[in-house]
Amino acid sequence: MTATDQLTTGTGPASGPALATHRLVAGFGAQTVLHGIDLNLPTGEVTGIFGLNGAGKSVLLKVIAGVVPAWSGRVTLGGADVTDLLPEKRVALGMTHVPQGRQVFGSLSVEQNLRVGGYTLRRRDRQRYADNLARVFDTFPRLAERRRQPAATLSGGEQAMLAVGRALVNDPTVVLIDEPSAGLAPSVVEDLLEVLLGVRGLGLTMLLVEQNIRFGLRLADSACLLQKGRIVYSGETASLDQDRLATYLGVGRLLRDDLSAGLDRPKRRGRRG
Fold it and tell me: Does the predicted TM-score (pTM) go above 0.90?
């Protein structure tokens, strides 16, 4: 089964990057945070953005999602320039954003949260929305069991699952995920890893920002290391040099064993066909 069959996604070009940025510059007030970021995300792959606190990782995702405006440069989605589009327009074109902290609507039920996530699709095609909602519940049976339950009563892991499901229900081709493991217990992080490995198996293009390096490396096909708003290294995770990675991230010797375990990640699951 293809990704389109598994979760009805929007159309995109057969070749070329699914998402790209060109010399992207952004910041706040007089402070420049991003200094000319160039990214090219291959269709169907997971790209990880790693860096220390303050490197500009979350700002980069917010600029790509349209939450923070770009000062200069371009963002393209499937070859189309979306730099000046509002976030909801980008969602309608196939981009979706899972923000840091998950930010579910606690007073709304699980299903109502999913309805909010799918609002642009519901306006265009209610039947496709209903089909996608059913597939999300098939993918995440725990959400189906709690569909009438207020999101605030879910565990941290379940809220993370809901945030991912809310992103998937709206026909995405590109998914931006910001710090999915933040604040979760180690056992819950492992559950979340399985969820995101399953999402990766759908063949969607993902851009992942993650402070937990080991977690992120187990998901990503390629990695970009960010320092002070600049990409200082990029390459496939399979060919990453552990010493170089530790040096760029400013981590000590004790973490190098952890990085080694992260690089020894599960093999990429083949796309369902």
Answer: no
